[in-house]
Design brief:
Layout (H helix, E strand, L loop, with lengths): L3 H13 L6 E4 L2 E4 L1 E3 L2 E8 L23 E2 L20 H9 L15 E7 L8 E7 L14 H13 L5 E5 L4 H5 L3 H5 L5 H16 L5 E11 L1 H15 L7 E5 L13 H10 L8 H6 L3 H9 L27 H6 L8 E6 L16 H12 L5 H10 L22 H24 L5 E6 L14 H5 L3 H10 L20 E4 L5 E3 L7 H7 L5 E4 L2 E4 L1 E3 L2 E8 L23 E2 L20 H9 L15 E7 L8 E7 L13 H13 L5 E5 L4 H5 L3 H5 L5 H16 L5 E11 L1 H15 L7 E5 L13 H4 L3 H8 L27 H6 L8 E6 L4 H4 L8 H12 L5 H10 L20 H24 L5 E6 L19 H4 L4 H10 L19 E5 L8 E4 L4 H13 L3
Keywords: Hydrolase, Signal
Protein name: Carboxylesterase type B domain-containing protein
Family: Belongs to the type-B carboxylesterase/lipase family.
């Protein structure tokens, strides 16, 4: 007979029998995970090629499809960790507190081969469930250390709790590179476009989630980014990256103790780069980076460990922080926020009350007022004057009762300046950036904010940085937010959205949660901003108040025409009457309606970033038909009566997308640079209609005289400027039109308008990668006017669609008989064009980015059918036959690269054809017809700003590279001022003539001076192609 003991023993054996481990299918591979009861874990999944050897410091290389079985049962090694300052100088209690916070050594195995991710999901989730997803980005020691294994318990707890709440979610975490391995900075990094590699690691994971999370039961359309400390700062940078374009990779953000950090240019890391180069004996190497890649890991890691860290005397002023690299981060984060550039997604952001206390534990030798003031001046604000800093020392007094931990009187006074230092550091890095972001964006998008005073009784450090991670205060709110994009759960005190009119914080205390309007001390940036008097001017009868931004003044969102809404949709713009009421011109107006662009998939993060920086990205600003506004940016010191040269810029975006807010950085940079050069200018940007709203074509549009209304918007803006430029100190008789890509084509269209009659609207033109495009009359747009209108508008005619016509899109300028009297190329051929000084040029490989949308063209027949169907449908087979010989599959663009960049069989051929058809051909055609009749200069750039291009699908002389790397800024300023791009020094840039068709050529080596080359490349091919386009326009 069985005894109770036997039964129990049998049950124990049965339970000990191994469970079937969970599996998931990725591509053709089976991935085996770990059974965790109610959750399943898939750990250590590689998402990029190991960044070893020659890949050290480089941008991450995405992996190909999964083809082999993978055991995903343990976490991958941590990425190399910065060794933190010892806590031996602290009391045992403080050392224990620090050890419980995220700021600590992980103690886990480390390796450069560390780019792995982890997925924790409900064990019952299936691919059909489409559960919300949260991507966790760890902080740790502010970009110096941290890993995913340390957060295994938290990730498991979050998923288990979501199951308990009846709203299951999926948790994803990743290891990413930090310190010198992921955030090395300096000139060599800048030139090689290797900045912020650790952040690009994170972006690669987001793309991986888009591709694979459905296999785990997750939805790639419901992804929330979540981070704490440096992780929250990382999330904020993703909100700001690529002009706020998320690429649909995430849809909400939850920020704990981190926001838009006050980071500067990548050059600010040069001193540490030089230190590492010297310590590795690489300073004199021909290629310093390559030399440092050869240094053994242990040797290099020891040298990195000797640099300052977050627990050093320098505190946050450390070498390893994200920097402005011009590709991933386009400008200083706070400037991007100030320019209203951020992803338009729901956001929760908040802080602990005493964020700065932990970071001030290692500044205890600062004991006097003089010590404090010297530390702020040297470590935080070396460029500020004594007058700038004087209010700061008043806002942050040495009185202990005013410092942090706040509301603790004279308690916790570790040293005479400790609480003062803690208050300042907490505000400058956490509270001020959070509030600044909320004040800029709340009201535009759903935002909630909190303040946690929990742990306030903790000796010395109070409600310290990281305490919310220790007590799990926010986890239920996080789950509600991941599921609903709203932290409320319908019970307890309602958490209202934050607005400037009602800046309420959901405040946690050791008692209960409450709402309050909390006034926090301000950082230096905000304190200074409070004392700045906004600039004003008078327009007609109205006082217009602008925005002060350093040494420039901005007047934004100025209406120049009646809103084209209701009965005015599609119609020509209606000029407005005089300004009569006071106006606040402090924010950009809404963008005009944008066409949805179809993304290009299956490319690496760096290439995706290049596409986004080329100008071919959706805007993140508010979109509205009431959009006809312009903006004026001028030197702040401009006085009444001045007549500064003026540039009027038209944005690019393929006539489908684009706005002025996205170009705030560029416009500001040009004005600031003009001031540095001693030749200040005024910069104007114009919002105008695009897509169907501005370029409707067809018989009906022709009969009603409604063609090209988007370009007529621009003409009306130029007319407005003739009346009002003197109010801004601008010279209405010295206006240069500027544009890049389709913006350059827009400027060129103004040269053809009204049969070339300028009417004093402008006096010179600077065209980057755009010109007189080969288009026909309005009848060429008939198809999209009729039954396929919505189809054309929303689906098939995006410039980056796999199945579309690429640049042969629906919404193009067309000859309408009124504004544009004939096809532009025919007008060039007839000499009908404004005769004004002109600069026009291209990058070498204009067509590569656009050819990415045609990678399914893999055979000779595919190529010929594509050209005949979309580009030259009227041409005969005999007329097309020479093209097949001129543009072969053996040669193409990127030019002069052999087979290294052949993405597909016909990719380079397609890139060469499209680049010549839309860019090089029209440029050379207009130069050959008009040079000699007017001063014209031309250029070509082979400038390379990316060190290693073997992993790119496009050589970096791509469409937009000259715009992205500021290559032509100084030449543009000189041309605006003098209508001549020369400055009297360096290589002279001669005017272009038929007898001497010289191009000012920017060589591959960024440090080399420009050279003169003859514009004779592909002479026969381009000449034949241009003649075909003259006969058969788009």
């Amino acid at each position: 007979m069985l005894t109770i003991t036997t039964i129990l023993f049998s049950l124990a054996l049965a339970r000990a029998t191994p469970l079937t481990p969970p599996t998931v299918q990725l591509d053709s591979a089976t991935i085996t995970g770990v059974d965790g009861g109610t959750v399943s874990k898939f750990l250590g999944i590689p998402y990029a090629t190991p960044p070893l050897g020659s890949l050290r410091f480089r941008q991450p290389q995405p992996l190909g499809p999964f083809t082999q079985p993978l055991s995903a049962t343990q976490y991958g090694p941590s990425c190399p960790q910065q060794k933190l300052t010892s806590t031996d100088s602290l009391s045992p209690d403080l050392a224990a507190i620090l050890a419980s916070s995220p700021i600590k050594d992980t103690g886990n195995p480390e390796s450069e081969d560390c780019l792995t991710l982890n997925v924790i999901k409900p064990s019952t989730a299936t691919p059909d469930d489409r559960l919300p997803v949260v991507i966790w980005i760890y902080g740790g020691s502010a970009f110096e250390a941290g890993d995913t294994q340390s957060y295994d318990e938290m990730g498991t707890r979050i998923v288990e709790r979501s199951i308990e709440l009846g709203t299951p979610i999926i948790y994803v975490s990743m290891n990413y590179r930090s310190s010198a391995f992921g955030l090395l900075a300096g000139e060599d990094i800048d030139i090689s476009a290797l900045g912020d590699a650790g952040l690009v690691d994170q972006r690669i994971v987001m793309r991986w989630v888009q591709n694979y999370i459905e296999n785990f039961g997750g939805s790639n359309k419901a992804v929330t980014l979540w981070g704490e400390s440096g992780g929250a700062m990382s999330v904020t940078l993703h909100l700001l990256a690529h002009h706020g374009d998320t690429g649909d990779m995430f849809h909400a953000a939850f920020l704990q103790s981190g926001g838009p950090i006050p980071a500067g240019p990548i050059s600010h890391g040069q001193s540490t780069f030089d230190y590492l180069a010297s310590g590795t004996n690489c300073s004199s190497a021909a290629d310093i980076l390559e030399c440092m890649r050869q240094v053994p890991y242990d040797t290099f890691k020891a040298l990195v460990d000797s640099t300052p860290n977050i627990l050093s005397y320098q505190s946050f002023n450390q070498p390893w922080i994200p920097r402005v690299d011009g590709l991933f981060i386009g400008n200083q984060p706070l400037k991007l926020v100030n320019s209203s550039i951020i992803a338009n997604v729901p956001i929760v952001t908040g802080n602990m009350d005493d964020e700065g206390t932990i970071f001030s534990l290692f500044n205890t030798n600062i004991t006097t007022d003089a010590d404090f003031q010297n530390y702020i001046t040297s470590n935080w604000a070396p460029g500020a004057t004594a007058d700038d800093l004087a209010p700061l020392f008043t806002y942050y007094p040495s009185d202990a009762a005013s410092g942090s931990p706040f509301d603790t009187g004279a308690n916790n006074t570790l040293t005479p300046q400790f609480k003062r230092m803690a208050a300042f550091q907490g505000d400058v890095m956490f509270q001020a950036p959070r509030r600044f972001m909320l004040e800029q964006f709340s009201g535009r998008q759903n935002m909630w904010s909190y303040l946690s005073k929990k742990g306030k009784t903790t000796p010395t450090v109070g409600a310290y940085h990281g305490y919310d991670m220790v007590d799990h205060t926010l986890e239920d709110y996080l789950i509600h937010f991941v599921v609903n994009h709203d932290p409320n759960n319908g019970t307890g005190p309602a958490w209202p959205q934050y607005t400037t009119a009602s800046p309420q914080l959901y405040t946690f205390s050791d008692g209960k949660n409450m709402l309050c309007v909390t006034t926090l001390l301000l950082s230096l940036a905000l304190a200074r901003a409070a004392t700045i008097t906004p600039p004003t001017i008078t327009i007609d009868h109205a006082t217009v108040t602008g925005l002060a931004d350093g040494n420039v003044a901005k007047y934004l969102g100025l209406p120049y025409a009646s809103p084209p809404v209701g009965s005015l949709r599609f119609r020509q713009p209606q000029p407005i009457g005089p300004y009569r009421t006071a106006m606040a011109a402090t924010t950009y107006g809404p963008s005009c309606p944008q066409q949805k662009l179809t993304g290009v998939t299956d490319i690496d993060a760096n290439m995706q970033g290049i596409i986004e920086n080329s100008g071919l990205h959706s805007v993140t600003n508010t979109v509205d038909e009431n959009c006809l506004t312009l903006n004026v940016i001028r030197p702040a010191a401009t006085t009444d009566g001045e007549t500064l040269p003026v540039v009027v810029a038209f944005f690019g975006g393929g006539f489908n997308v684009g706005d002025t807010a996205s170009h705030d950085d560029f416009a500001t940079r040009i004005v600031e640079r003009s001031i540095e050069l001693g030749s200040p200018v005024v910069f104007v940007t114009v919002n105008h209609r695009v897509g169907a709203y501005g370029l409707m074509a067809g018989r009906e549009a022709y009969l009603e005289g409604l063609g090209n209304v988007g370009f007529i918007d621009g003409r009306i803006a130029l007319r407005w400027l003739q009346y009002h430029l003197p109010s801004f100190g601008g010279d209405k008789n010295k206006i240069t039109l500027y544009g890049h890509s389709s913006g350059a084509s827009s400027a060129a269209i103004q040269m053809f308008a009204h049969h070339g009659d300028v009417g004093n609207a402008f006096h010179a033109v600077f065209l980057q990668s755009g010109g007189p495009i080969p288009v026909g009359d309005t009848s060429h747009g008939q198809t999209c006017f009729h039954i396929r209108y919505v189809y054309c508008l929303l689906l098939t005619l995006s410039m980056l669609s796999y199945t579309s016509q690429s640049m042969a899109g629906a919404w193009l300028p067309r000859a309408d008989g009124l504004f544009l009297t004939d096809a532009p190329m025919k007008m060039v051929n007839d000499g009908v064009m404004a005769k004004v000084p002109t600069v026009i040029g291209n990058v070498d490989d204009e067509g590569t980015i656009f050819a990415l949308s045609s990678r399914n063209i893999s055979t000779e027949d595919d190529f010929r059918n594509y050209v005949k169907t979309y580009w030259l449908p009227g041409a005969t087979d005999d007329e097309l036959a020479p093209l097949w010989d001129y543009y072969t599959s053996e040669d193409g663009s990127p030019f002069d690269t052999g087979n290294e960049t052949a993405l597909s069989t016909h990719f380079k051929r397609m890139a060469a054809f499209q680049g010549d058809f839309m860019y090089h051909g029209p440029r050379r055609f207009v130069l050959e017809k008009l040079s000699g009749k007017v001063n014209m200069w031309s250029y070509c750039t082979s400038h390379v700003s990316i060190e290693d291009v073997s992993f790119l699908f496009c050589y970096p002389q791509y469409h937009g590279s000259d715009f992205a790397n500021n290559l032509l800024d100084d030449y543009l300023v000189r041309f605006i001022v003098n209508h001549d791009p020369n400055n009297g020094t360096g290589v002279a840039w001669p005017p272009y003539t038929v007898d001497s068709p010289q191009l000012y050529t920017f060589p591959e080596d960024a440090d080399s001076a420009p050279i003169l080359t003859n514009d004779t490349f592909r002479a026969d091919a381009i000449a034949y192609l241009s003649n075909l386009t003259l006969t058969y326009p788009l």
